[in-house]
Amino acid sequence: MSRGHRDIVLGHLALAARRHRGRHAHLDPTALSAPDSTTARDAAAAAHDLLSPAVLQHSHRAYAWGAALAGVDGVDFDRELLYVASMFHDTGLPSGIRDVDFTVRSAALLRLFADRHGLSAAQREVMTNAIALHHTPGVTLEAGPEAYLLSAGAGVDVFGLRAGDIPDAVRRRVVHEHPRLGFKREFTRLWRAEARQVPRGRAAYLRRYAATDLTIRLAPFRG
């Protein structure tokens, strides 16, 4: 069993035994809410048009998990930039262009949105960097807080990584507000399609070396 699989299994067991870190953590659930700005609302509307319902709800949860882990880890970040990046991070999945990784396609769609909304070059750089890195193993704060939190938030939702660091009430609330809608099955299908389309991309690499079909199933969420 790989280290990643071991961590997921151990985290699942800790949740079942109620010995997980998040049991003692305290977070204000309102801190996980989407930022109230025109740009954030427009990003959510754009994601609604580009994504299936299951992947759209995953995008909302990825933001919420990232914001929750920011509270746990004491990380300061730009809520609007993380939210917009979260809305767009899977919009290119699966890639429609042979041998072009879906993260590149997602970042390109984000740039078009950012240009239409007059976001600065520095803001675009933060968001596209977060999208480009979000499925790269081992993203740290050195890559920037938004990149770190998007990677961590997506990791919670797709694989269950660090799910036990989030308080039980917060975890239940996020899934209630943004239901999973059969996300595991749909994401596995999209991941396989991406691996076929981009055989040297992240999805193919992680399917080959991290057995992502299995790790998605191991995530401690139903559906």
Topology (elements, then pairings):
Layout: H1 3-16, H2 38-50, H3 53-73, H4 79-88, H5 102-116, H6 121-133, H7 145-159, H8 168-177, H9 183-197, H10 202-210, H11 212-218
Helix pairs in contact: 2-4, 3-4, 3-7, 3-8, 4-6, 4-7, 5-6, 6-7, 9-10
Description:
- With 223 residues, the chain is an all-alpha fold.
- It has helices at residues 3-16, 38-50, 53-73, 79-88, 102-116, 121-133, 145-159, 168-177, 183-197, 202-210, 212-218.
- Helix 4 packs across helix 6 (121-133).
- The protein is globular, with a radius of gyration of 16 Å.
- The chain is 64% helix and 0% strand.
- The mean pLDDT is 89.
Which stretches are low in confidence, meaning pLDDT under 50 for 5 or more residues running? none
Helices, by number, come to 11
Distance between the termini: 24 Å
Gyration radius, to the nearest Å?
16 Å
Beta-strand residue percentage: under 5%
Chain oligomer state: single chain
What is the general shape?
globular
Structural class: mainly alpha
Largest sheet: none
Listing every helix as H and every strand as E from the N terminus to the C terminus, the arrangement reads HHHHHHHHHHH
The strand count comes to 0
Helix fraction by DSSP (H/I, runs of at least 4): 55-70%
Mean pLDDT score, rounded?
Answer: 89
Structure in a nutshell:
The protein is 64% helix and 0% strand.
